[in-house]
Predict the 3D structure of the following.
Amino acid sequence: MSKTLHIRFYEELNDFLPEHKKKVPFAHIFQGAPSIKDVIESLGVPHTEIDLILINGKSVNFNHHPNHGDKISVYPVFESFDISEILHLRPEPLRVIRFILDVHLGKLARYLRMLGFDSAYENDFDDEEIIERAVKERRVILTRDIGILRNGKVTHGLWLRSQDTKEQIREVIYRLDLYSQFKPFNRCMNCNGKILKIEKQHVVDYLKPGTRKFFHSFYQCEDCKKVFWKGSHYEKMVKMIDELKVK
C-alpha cells in the first residue's frame, strides 16, 4: 500500500534536487517501512550532508520510520550554530578537523595543508581505501563523487559543488566554519608532514648560493625532508591566506 509524506530540504541540500523540488515542500510517495535515511538518500541527498531532521516538529535519528502524512524538514550540517539541545544525526563533532580527499582534489589538498590542516591525499586512492581511512582516522571526506558519501560507513563528508580549486577551498572553510583554525605553514604542501624550524648550519650544503646568502631562517618537513624559507612564494601565500580569512 502506497503512503505519502511531505518533505522539504533547506539551504545547500537543495543542490542535490531537481529544480521543481528546490526550497519548497513536496509530496513523496513510498511503500513499505523504509527508514528516513533511506527515503532521503532515494531522493539523491547524501546522509553526510545532514545534521537535523524534524518530523512533525520533533527531531529524529536516521533509523526513524516515517508514517503516512508526516511533514518532514531536513537541514544541512550546522558547524557555526549551536543546536546542542536537539538531536544531531552524526557522532560527536570531530575535535580535530582532519581531511581525506579523493583522487581529483590534489590541488585542494595542497591548499588545505598550506592552512595547516592534516589532509591525506594520494592520486591512486580507491573509494574503499578513502572510506576505511576516513572511519579509522576520523577524517572528513572531501569529494566530487556523491556515491562515496552514500556509503553507510561514512559519517563525515562534504560534496564539493565547485570544480574550481580556489572556490573549493573557500567552500570548505565556509561550510565547516574553519576561519579560527588556520595554522599556516605547519604542514608540508607536498606530503602532509609537519614542518619544523631547523638551524641553517644543518641545511646549508643543500642551498643555492643566493638562498644561502640572503636567507637565515629555515624550516624542514620531518617526513620528506624538503627545506623551506620565506622567499617570494611565501609572500604570495600569505596574501592568499589573508584573503581566505574574509568571510
Summary: Residues 98-181 form one domain. The two ends are 50 Å apart (CA to CA). Confidence is low (pLDDT under 50) at residues 79-83.
